[in-house]
Design goal:
Layout: E1 11-18, E2 27-32, H1 58-67, E3 74-79, H2 88-97, E4 101-106, H3 111-117, E5 123-127, H4 135-139, H5 146-158, E6 161-168, H6 175-188, E7 193-197, H7 216-219, H8 223-230, E8 234-236
Parallel strand pairs: 2-3, 3-4, 4-5, 5-6, 6-7, 7-8
Antiparallel strand pairs: 1-2
Helix pairs in contact: 3-5, 6-8
Length: 237
C-alpha cells in the first residue's frame, strides 16, 4: 500500500531523546520549519523561514522512528510552528500508526486546524503570550491573539493532557499584564500553567534591553503566590 505523501511537512531538526518535552514519557522531538510570527524574544530564528531546505526528509524521520520502536514512547511536534505545516495531520496520524503517543507544542495560531488535530493528540503544550490586546507587540502581527485563545477553549473541551505556558521578557510583559492574563486563563478553566523566564540576550529583536533580572517572578515577594491563587498548579521555569 502506498504511503501518504508527507512532502509538505518540513523538518528543521530533531532531538532523538528527550525526557522533558512530554511529561513522564521518553520522546523524540521533531522541529517543524517555518513560523508566520516574529516574536521579539524568539531564540530560534533558524526555524522561522519556511523556505529553508528541510534538514530531514520524512523518509529519514520515519526510518529513525522505526528503529526506536519499543525504546521511545512518544513523538513531539514542535517548531517553528507546527500548525503552519500543511502535512502535520497526516504526519501525526502516521506516528500514531507506528505505535507512539503524540505531543504538540504550539502557539495555537490556527484554531481550525488545531481542532482537526486534537483527536489524534495525547498531550499539548500551548504558548499563550500575553493578554489579547497585547499580542501584536510580541508577535508583530495584528489581531494575532484571537486564534490562541480559541485554541485554549478547544483544548480544554477536548479533555486531553496539557500545559499552558507563557514566556516572560520583563520588557514585553509587565506584572499587571501577567496577572491579567492569568486571570483570563483561570476564567477559561486552565488548571496547569507554566511561566517561562526568557533569556534577555540573543533575542530576535536585538533592540530589546539586556541584563534585566531573569527571575523577577520568583524573587518578588508574593507575586508567584498571586499567580497560584488564580491557578494553583502554576510553576516557574
Amino acid at each position: 500500500m502506498r504511503r501518504a505523501n508527507l512532502s509538505p511537512l518540513s523538518i528543521g531538526g530533531i532531538t532523538p531523546f528527550s525526557t522533558i518535552d512530554f511529561p513522564d514519557q521518553l520522546a523524540a522531538v521533531l522541529f517543524c520549519q517555518g513560523c508566520p510570527w516574529r516574536c521579539r524574544y524568539c531564540h530560534n530564528p533558524h526555524l522561522l523561514d519556511h523556505r529553508v531546505e528541510p534538514a530531514l526528509s520524512w523518509a529519514e524521520v520515519e526510518q529513525f522512528l522505526q528503529s526506536r520502536r519499543n525504546l521511545l514512547e512518544a513523538v513531539v511536534f514542535s517548531g517553528g510552528e507546527p500548525l503552519f505545516q500543511p502535512g502535520l495531520l497526516t504526519a501525526v496520524q502516521r506516528v500514531r500508526q507506528l505505535g507512539f503517543k503524540v505531543g504538540l507544542q504550539t502557539a495555537g495560531i490556527n484554531s481550525r486546524y488545531f481542532a482537526k488535530l486534537l483527536p489524534d493528540l495525547d498531550w499539548v503544550g500551548i504558548d499563550i503570550k500575553a493578554p489579547l490586546e497585547d499580542y501584536a507587540q510580541i508577535t508583530g502581527i495584528s489581531l494575532s491573539g484571537k486564534n490562541p485563545f480559541q485554541s485554549i477553549r478547544l483544548l480544554l473541551e477536548a479533555g486531553i493532557d496539557y500545559e499552558v505556558r507563557t514566556t516572560v521578557h520583563p520588557h514585553l510583559l509587565t506584572e499587571p499584564a501577567l496577572l491579567k492574563l492569568a486571570t483570563t486563563l483561570a476564567e477559561l478553566g486552565v488548571q496547569h500553567y507554566a511561566v517561562q523566564m526568557c533569556r534577555t540576550v540573543g533575542c530576535l529583536d536585538d533592540s530589546l534591553p539586556t541584563g534585566l533580572p531573569s527571575r523577577w517572578i520568583v524573587d518578588k515577594t508574593g507575586f508567584l503566590q498571586s499567580l497560584q491563587t488564580l491557578i494553583p498548579d502554576t510553576i516557574v521555569r
